[in-house]
Amino acid sequence: MGQSLVKNYMHIVFSTKQREELIHPPYKEKIHAYLGGICKQQNCQPLIIGGYKDHIHILCRLSQNIKLAKLIEQVKSHSSRWIKTLDPSLSNFYWQDGYGAFSVNPHEIDVVVQYIKNQDQHHRTKDFKNEYKAFLDKHKMDHDERYVWD
């Protein structure tokens, strides 16, 4: 086979350091757009970016030319530096060290898009910790609770 064909959709989730609630209007939409721009620069087409006050969800098509860890490193490092320039109150902005990344069946894209679109409504009843634990359980991901929240 001479042609390499790849189509991997990833749902990436990470939070602000210590889950501080720092992602608010008027910067929320700008931050989402900036994260999408970084994904595009890495040839990882974003389908939707959203989140809540303390975390981000990115649904993108992962390029066959970049490792997932490298994409996330680029997204987090570049955006963190940029976010700090938005307002003096964000001068100590940091993302958490880790992340979650979940593969998405192409037939489930619409479900994930709707889930990300409805983050504000969703988090009226469920905090990020419980949301993230549910993702880990749903995807049967082994984890050590002591290290998930650092």
Description:
By secondary structure, this protein is an alpha+beta fold. The protein has one domain (8-129): 2-Layer Sandwich (Alpha-Beta Plaits), CATH 3.30.70.1290. The chain has six helices and four strands. It has helices at residues 28-41, 68-83, 109-117, 119-122, 128-138, 145-148; strands at residues 8-15, 46-52, 55-62, 100-104. Strands 2-3-1-4 form a four-stranded antiparallel sheet, sandwiched between helices. A hairpin with a 2-residue loop joins strand 2 and strand 3 (55-62). The protein is globular and about 55 Å long. 19% of the residues are buried. This is REP element-mobilizing transposase RayT. GO terms for molecular function: DNA binding; transposase activity.
Summarize the main sheet: 4 strands, antiparallel
Q: Name the assembly state.
A: single chain
Number of helices: 6
**How many angstroms does the end-to-end distance come to?**
45 Å
Domain Transposase IS200-like: 6-119
InterPro entries: Transposase_17, Transposase_17_sf
GO biological process, one term: DNA transposition
GO molecular function: DNA binding; transposase activity
Q: What can be said about this structure in brief?
A:
The protein has six helices and four strands, in the order E-H-E-E-H-E-H-H-H-H. With 150 residues, it is α+β, with helices and mostly antiparallel strands. The protein has one domain: Transposase IS200-like (Alpha-Beta Plaits, 2-Layer Sandwich), CATH 3.30.70.
